[in-house]
Structure formats: structure tokens, C-alpha cells
């Protein structure tokens, strides 16, 4: 049936219903007659509107048709006009499009720059330190604190700790919140590892016990290494890291844990113990180039400068790439 005929037939049914409602005869059938005519008109209008709806709005078919019918049935006359007008306007009025496809904008100030273009941080620790120390604008110092997010954790912690001494409350509060967030992440990891360790001890699962002690040693070390703990708290974390390393080494001579223990000894200014652990890590299969920087540090603490130069020369001759932070050290000594 064509669109015109559907419209005519729907209007006829609607008119018949209104006539029945206003008729002088058969008073008990006024309302049923009107409802029958109005329902038929609403059904035909729903079918008509459904056919002209965009394809993606037609399905599910029953729900779409029922929605159109309900609106028209419970809003007599006005419902059909409103739906028809809205649908026709939406289908035939052109969508506004912007004529300007692009626009030039100035380069944003730090830290709002894309960090995907380079694997290196966009801002050095010294540069941000200078901004925090010398910039008179509070906004610039806040942006410097935000820019520390692009740096390594250890460098960013140093920046944030300096920001805690800023004269502006906004800078200090932002730095404190970011430091607290970093500390909370590691603290949660420590709590989770302690919980898993307790469960493993209850189940007498030796492999799981060793695994959780390794995690605890790493988390305690990270808290001290990043500088999130200072003074007596740092000493406590280093002691806990050392104890967990010793517990692991009592069951297995893990090369990674031996290297970690050596670094803990270095942090505690114990070069002899550090050297012993690091050499043992090499014996247990750890690649020598991963230990050479720490062995050079133990030699320097013992004032054995000849050994420092020899170890760094060996490191520079290794085919493995050297960490960028060691480039300056190698240039100085070699």
C-alpha cells in the first residue's frame, strides 16, 4: 500500500473515531468507538513512520513499532503530528558542517607535549630543578611538578621532594599528593605480598614462600632506592629488604637476589659485603655486564681507583649498550 493511501486511511480512521465520540446516538459506544478508530489510525501512522525511519533505528522491529504506536495512542492527534514533523525535519534538513578543517595553534607550554615521539624524557632533572628554584610564576612551578610525571620514578621523586620546600601552598600540596600516590602504590604491593606470604606459610608452600620473599625484597628496596623513605624509615626498609634476600638465599642461590643484596650493601656503605654478593651473582650465572657498574662502585668506595678504571674499561668494551646515565662516568674515567 502506498504512502498516500496509508495517510488517507489513517486520517479516515481518526475522523471516524472522533465522529463516534461526538455522535448523538449510541451513547454507551462513544468511547469504545473512538478508541478503536484512534488505535487503527495510530497503527497505520506507526507503520508509515517506521518505513521512513533510518535503517539503524528500525530494529528490533517490534520495539520500534511499539514505541511509535504508544506515543501516538496516548497523545491523540498531537503525537502523530509531532512524530511526523520531527522525523521529516531530521531526515531532510542538512547537517551543519564546519567549513574550517584545521587551525594553527601555538605550541603548548610544558608539560603538555606528546611523550610518544621520544623514549627519553622531555625534561631533564636539572631543567625542572632550575624552574622550581628560579621561576617566579607559581603556574610555571606547578607545570614543572606535573612534568616530572614523564621522568623516571627516582628522578621524579627528587623533583617532588624539592617542590615540598616551595613557598607556594599549591606547589607543595601537589608535590605531596604525587609523592603520596607513589608511596601508596608500593605500600599496597608490600601489604599484598605480606598477605600472600602468610598464606603460603600456612599452606607450607615453599616455592610460593620464596616467590613472595623475592617480591618483598624488591618492594622494600624500591621504597628506599626511590627516596620515598628517609632517615630511620629508610634504614628499616633496607634492613627488611636484606632480611628477605637472606631468607631467599637460604634456600636458593638466586643470581638476581644476590645482585640486589649487593646493591643494598652499597646503599649501607658496606663495599666489602657488596663485592662478595656481586661476585657470587656472576658465579650463579648473572651476565657480567649487569654487575660491572656496581663492582666499580665498590672499588671506588674502597679507593681502589685502578680497579675502577679497569672495570669501566671492561664495561665500555662490552657489546651490550651502556645505560645513558653511565656515559658521563665512562668519559670521565676513560
Task: Write up this protein.
The chain is mainly α and 334 residues long. Among the domains are: 3-87; 253-334, Alpha Horseshoe (Serine Threonine Protein Phosphatase 5, Tetratricopeptide repeat), CATH 1.25.40. It is 70% helix and 0% strand. It has 15 helices and no strands. The longest helix has 34 residues, at 169-202. The chain starts with a helix and ends with a helix.
**Major sheet characteristics:** none
Structural Rg: 38 Å
Q: Which consecutive residue ranges, at least 5 long each, have pLDDT under 50?
A: 113-122
Structural class comes to mainly alpha
What is the H/E string?
HHHHHHHHHHHHHHH
Oligomer: single chain
Write out key terms for the chains shown.
single chain; elongated; about 0% strand; about 70% helix; Serine Threonine Protein Phosphatase 5, Tetratricopeptide repeat; about 325 residues; mainly alpha
Topology:
Blueprint (H helix, E strand, L loop, with lengths): L2 H20 L7 H23 L8 H14 L3 H15 L32 H10 L3 H10 L5 H11 L5 H34 L3 H20 L5 H19 L5 H13 L3 H13 L8 H10 L3 H13 L6 H10 L1
Helix pairs in contact: 1-2, 2-3, 2-4, 3-4, 5-6, 5-7, 6-8, 7-8, 8-9, 9-10, 9-11, 10-11, 11-12, 12-13, 13-14
Compact summary:
The protein is mostly helical.
Amino acid at each position: 500500500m502506498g504512502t498516500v493511501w496509508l495517510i488517507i486511511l489513517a486520517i479516515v480512521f481518526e475522523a471516524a473515531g472522533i465522529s463516534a465520540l461526538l455522535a448523538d446516538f449510541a451513547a454507551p459506544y462513544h468511547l469504545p468507538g473512538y478508541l478503536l478508530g484512534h488505535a487503527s489510525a495510530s497503527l497505520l501512522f506507526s507503520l508509515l513512520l517506521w518505513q521512513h525511519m533510518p535503517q539503524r533505528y528500525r530494529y528490533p522491529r517490534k520495539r520500534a513499532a511499539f514505541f511509535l504506536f504508544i506515543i501516538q495512542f496516548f497523545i491523540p492527534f498531537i503525537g502523530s503530528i509531532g512524530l511526523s514533523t520531527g522525523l521529516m525535519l531530521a531526515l531532510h534538513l542538512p547537517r551543519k558542517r564546519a567549513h574550517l578543517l584545521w587551525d594553527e595553534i601555538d605550541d603548548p607550554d610544558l608539560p603538555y607535549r606528546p611523550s610518544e615521539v621520544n623514549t627519553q624524557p622531555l625534561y631533564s632533572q636539572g631543567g625542572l630543578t632550575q624552574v622550581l628554584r628560579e621561576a617566579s610564576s607559581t603556574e610555571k612551578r606547578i607545570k614543572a611538578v606535573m612534568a616530572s610525571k614523564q621522568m623516571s620514578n627516582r628522578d621524579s621523586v627528587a623533583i617532588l621532594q624539592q617542590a615540598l620546600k616551595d613557598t607556594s601552598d599549591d606547589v607543595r600540596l601537589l608535590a605531596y599528593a604525587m609523592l603520596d600516590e607513589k608511596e601508596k602504590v608500593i605500600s599496597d604491593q608490600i601489604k599484598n605480598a605480606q598477605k600472600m606470604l602468610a598464606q603460603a606459610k600456612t599452606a607450607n608452600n615453599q616455592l610460593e614462600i620464596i616467590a613472595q620473599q623475592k617480591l618483598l625484597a624488591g618492594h622494600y628496596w624500591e621504597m628506599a632506592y626511590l627516596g620515598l623513605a628517609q632517615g630511620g624509615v629508610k634504614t628499616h626498609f633496607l634492613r627488611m629488604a636484606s632480611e628477605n634476600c637472606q631468607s631467599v638465599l637460604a634456600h636458593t642461590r638466586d643470581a638476581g637476589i644476590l645482585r640486589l643484596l649487593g646493591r643494598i650493601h652499597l646503599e649501607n656503605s658496606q663495599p666489602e659485603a657488596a663485592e662478595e654478593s656481586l661476585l657470587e651473582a656472576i658465579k650463579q650465572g648473572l651476565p657480567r655486564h649487569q654487575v660491572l657498574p656496581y663492582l666499580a662502585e665498590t672499588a671506588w668506595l674502597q679507593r681502589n681507583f685502578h680497579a675502577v678504571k679497569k672495570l669501566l674499561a671492561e664495561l665500555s668494551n662490552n657489546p651490550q649498550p651502556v645505560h645513558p646515565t653511565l656515559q658521563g662516568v665512562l668519559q670521565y674515567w676513560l
